[in-house]
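Here is an idea for our session: we take a single protein and study its fold together. To get us started, please write out a protein record for me. Start from the sequence, derive the backbone structure tokens from it, and show both lines together. Go ahead whenever you are ready, and we will take it from there:
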Amino acid sequence: EFQPFFAGEMGLEEVIEDIQLHSRRYAKRQLTWFRNRMNPRWYDLLLDPSASQQLEKEIKKWLEEVGISG
């Protein structure tokens, strides 16, 4: 993505802004893909530390479902 800078077509600040914009868009696409295919449950352990117990239960349940026990 630095090619326009090295070719003298854009300034460094413009290139950096473009890279940041493209990175944000890529991250948004990744989240959209993840939400649409995985049906995730989100846990905020900073706001609710007790949620870690529920998360641990769900992970163990999933591991059993896929044939991994621990």
